[in-house]
Specification:
With about 250 residues, this protein is an alpha/beta fold. The protein is built from 9 helices and 10 strands. The strands form 2 sheets. Strands 6-7-8-3-9-10 form a 6-stranded mixed β-sheet, sandwiched between helices. Strand 1 and strand 2 form a beta hairpin. It is globular and about 50 Å long.
Length: about 250
């Protein structure tokens, strides 16, 4: 469903993504891990057609990622939710459904289902400017799913969510994958990747260092059983650091 073939992306002289190959199959939940600046968000934006690769191909169900056909199949949730604050949540969902060309009865049915799924009934008719971060994030997730996408791309989905909202979102990812949706999720929370992902990819400096199931990764780096240790070993995060100088005590007296 999602395929990157030899993808490289430059920003000026800086190489943000370096010859990246990646496949997310229908029904697969792929966790995309890497330190800050590793190229994760750039990769996700290329999958969504928001950026074009310098070289290589990015495909969504064999369509170029920046094509209208690919965008109709895909949903993207960025790390920071954005809503039109002078609309209510319901009006925003209706606006998005119209953008995707859904017929009104279908859109209204989907909206009712999603409002119930995300437990938004108490505030969906309030203006978005009055929403908390978690409330906004729930509406954004609902808007991403209103057209029943075949691929879901999510950047840092649990940032700022309370435990209840986080549980809803995690259950959503699993349910979407089990229904046949290809889910590509970038996260810094290794515990979430370990808990939810079918496949894990670890990227650093724009290059894929390892990918596979957790068992596959453990075989690649056999001396590290936990994902955190494995991640640090691959990305160099466990290199000894120069200790900070200790403060010099002032002489007494």
């Amino acid at each position: 469903m999602i395929r990157l073939q030899g993808v490289t992306k430059f920003y000026g002289a800086k190489k943000a993504v370096d010859g990246l190959d990646l496949i997310v199959k229908p029904g697969e939940l792929f966790a995309f891990l890497g330190p800050n600046g590793a190229g994760k968000t750039t990769t996700l934006k290329m999958v969504c057609g928001l950026l074009r690769p310098t070289s290589g191909r990015v495909l969504v169900s064999d369509f170029p990622a920046d094509s209208p056909a690919a965008r109709q199949l895909l949903a993207y949730v960025p790390d920071q939710p954005y809503l039109y604050e002078k609309l209510t949540g319901r009006e925003f969902l209706r606006f998005v459904s119209e953008m995707y060309g859904l017929e009104r009865p279908v859109a209204e049915r989907r909206m009712r289902e999603l409002i119930e799924t995300f437990e938004m009934g108490d505030y969906i008719d309030d203006l978005c400017e009055n929403y908390s971060h978690g409330m906004k994030q729930r509406v954004v997730f609902a808007s991403a799913l209103v057209h029943a996408p075949k691929a879901l791309v999510v950047d840092e989905p649990l940032v700022g969510l309370d435990p209840r909202s986080g549980r809803i979102v995690k259950d959503l990812f699993v349910a979407q994958a089990r229904s046949g949706v290809a889910v590509l999720m970038s996260t810094h929370l290794l515990s979430i990747a370990e808990e939810l992902a079918d496949t894990i990819g670890i990227i650093d400096q724009g290059r894929m260092l390892a990918q596979g199931t957790l068992a596959d990764l453990r075989r690649q780096v056999p001396q590290h059983g936990h994902l955190e240790d494995l991640f640090l070993a691959l990305t160099g995060g466990n290199r000894p650091r120069t200790p900070l100088p200790t403060a010099v005590e002032a002489p007494e007296g």
